[in-house]
Amino acid sequence: MGHVVSLPESPETKTKTGVRQSDIAFDTIHKAIVRCELMPGSIVTEVDLANQFNFGRAAARAAVDRLSLIGLLQPVRRQGYRVKPITLRDLNDLFQLREIVEVACVRLAAGRVDSADLHRLDRLCRADYQPGNKESEANFLQRNSDFHLSIAAATGNDRLVSVLKQTLMELERMFHFGLSLRDRGSEMHSEHKSIIDALAEGDAETAERVTVDQVRSSRAMVLDALLSSTSLLDVKIGVPHESQLA
Predict the structure, then answer these.
(1) Tally of CB atoms within 10 A around 25
(2) pTM score
(3) Which of 224, 227, 146, 240 is nearest to 184 (CA)?
(4) For a tag site, which of 58, 108, 152, 235 has the least CB within 10 Å?
(5) CA–CA separation, 147 vs 40, rounded Å?
(6) Which domains does the chain have, with CATH numbers?
(7) Quick check: 173 and 125 in contact, CB under 8 A?
(8) CA atoms within 13 Å, Cβ hemisphere of 205
(9) pLDDT at 243 > cutoff 90
C-alpha cells in the first residue's frame, strides 16, 4: 500500500458551513484593522497573522493579497506589510467631505421627517459605549451611522445616502482610534437630540449649525488621538491651517 500524501492547504478550503477559509481570514483581519486592533502603521507578516488569528498560511496569504489590493495593507520590502497609517491628510479630507454632505442632508431633511422617523432617530441617539471595548465601540458606531444615514434617507436623494455611507465607512477606523481614548457618548447624545429637535421644527439653520459643530468635534477627537500617537503620523503631512478647516 502506498503512502498517503498530504496536500498543501488551499485558500479555497471551506469550513463546515461552506464558507471559504480565505474569506473568513479576510473578514477577520479586515475587522481587526478597522477596529485598530492591528494598529495603524504597524508591521505584520503572513506568519504573524496566521498565528494570531489561527488561520493556515494559504488562507492568510490570500487575505493579505486582498487587503493589499484595497490599500489597508502596504507591502514593505523584506519586512512584510504595514497596516495603512492614519494620516492628517486623510483625516482632513474625509471630515471636510463629511461636513459638506451632512450639511446638505440636514438642510434637505428639515421639516420632511415624519414622527416615525423622529422616534427612530431618538432611539438611535441613545446609544452609548465603553471606551477600549472594541465590540462596544463597533455597536455604538453602527448606531451612529444608522442615525446619520436615516437623516440622509429622509432627503429622498439616494446619491446623498450613498456618498455619506461610503464616507462614514472610510471614517470608521479613525472613529475607533479616537473613541478608544475618551468617552464622547454623552456629548454626541446631546448633539443628536439638538439635531432631532431642529429637524422636527423645520429649522434648517439650527440643524446645520449643530451638525457642523458635531462633525468638527469628532474631527478634533480623532486629531487629538493622532497627535498623542506621533509614531502613527506621516511626518511629511503637517497640521492643516485653521482656514483649511472652515
Answers:
(1) 26
(2) 0.80
(3) 224
(4) 235
(5) 27
(6) 21-83 (1.10.10.10), 88-230 (1.20.120.530)
(7) no
(8) 0
(9) no
Residue 109's Cβ-count burial label (10 Å; 0-12, 13-18, 19+) is buried
Stated as kind and residue range, the H or E segment containing 73 is strand 73-76
Q: Which whole-number Å values give the CA distances from 238 to 49, 73, 89, 150, 201, in the listed order?
A: 32, 23, 8, 35, 41
What residue spans of the chain are helical by DSSP H? Answer: 21-34, 46-53, 57-69, 88-109, 115-124, 134-154, 158-179, 185-200, 204-227
pLDDT per residue as tens digits for the range 54-65: 999 999 999 999
Angle between the 185-200 and 88-109 helix axes, to the nearest 10 degrees? 30
The per-residue pLDDT for range 106-128, each reduced to its tens digit, is 999 998 988 788 888 888 878 78
Residue 209 CA to residue 188 CA, distance in Å, equals 14
Q: Indicate the residue type of 94.
A: L
Q: Strand pairing partners for 81?
A: 44, 75
CA angle 209, 94, 79 (to 5 degrees): 150
Residue 41 amino acid letter: G
The residues near 70 (Cβ < 8 Å, ≥ 6 apart) are none
CA angle 110, 128, 223 (to 5 degrees): 80
